[in-house]
What does this fold into?
Amino acid sequence: MSLSALSDESLLRFYDSVRKEVEADRDSRRRGHMHSFANSDGVKKYAAGLRAELERRRLNFSPIMWL
It folds into this structure.
């Protein structure tokens, strides 16, 4: 998928969904669960690509606070 072909809304939605999954992982780890979506190098690489495109377009977004 070409990130440059996505609409601003779609790009923001994809990034926000990753951010929400990372937050859910953080909450899950606080309760003692060890499985983590956010520790995947593939997820981090994907999020970095999304972030770079968001920055290129100068869109406002909430940063991902990785575990």
Remarks:
- The chain has a mean pLDDT of 91.
- The chain is about 60% helix and 0% strand.
- The longest helix spans residues 8-30.
- Residues 23 and 65 are 8 Å apart (CA to CA).
